[in-house]
Design a protein that fits this description.
Strand 6 and strand 7 form a beta hairpin. With 145 residues, the chain is mainly β. The chain folds into two domains: 76 residues, Roll (Chitinase A, domain 3), CATH 3.10.50.40; 49 residues, Thrombin, subunit H. The two termini are 19 Å apart. The protein has two helices and nine strands, in the order ββαβαββββββ. The strands form two sheets. Strands 1, 2, 3, 4 and 9 form a five-stranded antiparallel sheet that branches. A four-stranded antiparallel sheet has the order 5-8-7-6, with no helix packed on it. The radius of gyration is 20 Å and the shape is elongated.
Length: 145
């Protein structure tokens, strides 16, 4: 029976959840995911769990925040003065939008609050600081890809 080794290209079905069981993403919605094991295309604990699996096998993998989207960094929460916003800009609390840093790179931010003077923006990934749980099922080891 063939099992997964580092460097293999595989297709998996998955469900990504928070520790409380809330589903965040699922291949039932987005379709199977194809990855090269050990090439940094998925979180390290998932790649390690795949090694040695055979087609048809399933596992539950815990991914700590340090191995997922990293710790939450309060230094990435900032005030954006309304006077610097484009004319007509009025982002709603909870909305995620794209901004440009001073160096021109794009960054996604979430609006946490707004006042007459400014918006409070969060530049952390929405899952930063959260431990994740993945249910994975190996559906195919692709030959010679």
């Amino acid at each position: 029976m063939q099992t997964v080794k580092s460097g293999d290209t595989v297709r998996i079905m998955y469900e990504m959840k928070l520790e409380n069981g809330t589903t965040i993403d699922s291949s039932q919605i987005s379709g199977p995911k194809t990855i090269i094991v050990g090439e940094g295309e998925t979180f390290r604990p998932i790649a390690e769990a795949l090694i040695g699996m055979a087609v048809g096998e399933s596992k539950t993998v815990d991914v700590p925040s340090s191995e997922a989207y990293g710790p939450r960094d309060e230094g990435r929460v900032f005030q954006f003065p309304r006077g610097r916003a484009p004319k007509g800009f009025d982002a709603q609390v909870g909305k995620t939008l794209e901004m440009h840093r001073a160096d021109g790179q794009k960054v996604s931010v979430t609006v946490l609050a707004k006042s007459e003077e400014s918006y409070t923006m969060d530049g952390n990934h929405p899952l930063a600081g959260k431990n994740l749980v993945f249910d994975i099922a190996l559906i195919e080891i692709l030959p010679g890809v």
